[in-house]
């Protein structure tokens, strides 16, 4: 697999710089860097409890990653997971399907000098219950960016989110409309399973606040 012919995406996180090779010759969308992963990381950096000067910080609890387990779904090149790792999400598993794993592992190896450790990876098909169980849920933080683009994967995605996130945990979702059909189904079903908070656009990082992208915080609905 040749990555060197595709554009390299750099991302500054605090005092470190991550660099991601894309494989634009691949037939799979997961081997490209999509905007929402960048948006989510820079949002988290802006409001990170250790660096944010704003008081009160409305995201201090959500973005305090100390002693929390995290997992990224549909990670692709691993941008969000690696960025949040640099912001303190130490115990993180990065997942995607088998065809994307070479790109993910390539980028983990490329960024190992910055990360200073090998992050865990696992293959995960959202509809595979055995794979979900093998990850030993629940997780405090579930991360997903640019994952809503096929109508047929919406239900498995939401079921995986619900199975993986802890009762008091959060799903951090970077979102951009990719398919009207998937969009409609996702927002119809997600409201039945989660309480949803949309981050105000002005709270995104000013240099990473693309008009068509948003960040959401999902929490499991409390059982009555």
From TrEMBL:
Alphabetical list of CDD domains matching this protein: AdoMet_MTases
Specify the species: Nicotiana attenuata (Coyote tobacco)
InterPro entries assigned to the protein according to its UniProt record, in alphabetical order: Methyltransf_16 (IPR019410), SAM-dependent_MTases_sf (IPR029063)
- Name this polypeptide is given: Protein-lysine methyltransferase mettl21d
- Per the record, the domain of life is Eukaryota
Gene3D superfamilies per the record? Vaccinia Virus protein VP39
Q: Coiled coil located at which positions?
A: none
């Amino acid at each position: 697999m040749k990555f060197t012919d595709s554009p390299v995406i750099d991302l500054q996180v605090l005092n470190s710089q991550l660099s991601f090779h894309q494989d634009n010759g691949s037939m799979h969308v997961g081997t490209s860097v999509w905007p929402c992963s960048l948006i989510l990381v820079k949002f988290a950096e802006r409001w990170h409890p250790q660096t944010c000067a704003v008081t009160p910080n409305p995201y201090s609890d959500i973005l305090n990653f100390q002693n929390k387990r995290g997992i990224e779904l549909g990670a692709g090149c691993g941008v969000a997971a690696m960025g949040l790792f640099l912001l303190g999400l130490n115990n993180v598993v990065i997942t995607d399907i088998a065809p994307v794993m070479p790109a993910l592992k390539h980028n983990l190896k490329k960024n190992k000098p910055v990360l200073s450790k090998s992050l865990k990876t696992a293959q995960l098909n959202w509809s595979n219950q055995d794979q979900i169980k093998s990850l030993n849920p629940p997780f405090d933080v579930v991360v997903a960016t640019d994952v809503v683009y096929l109508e047929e994967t919406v239900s498995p995605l939401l079921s995986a989110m619900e199975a993986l996130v802890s009762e008091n945990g959060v799903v951090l979702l970077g979102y951009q409309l990719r398919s009207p059909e998937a969009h409609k189904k996702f927002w119809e079903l997600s409201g039945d399973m989660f309480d949803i908070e949309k981050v105000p656009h002005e709270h995104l990082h000013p240099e990473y606040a693309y008009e068509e992208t948003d960040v959401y915080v999902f929490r499991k609905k409390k059982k009555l």
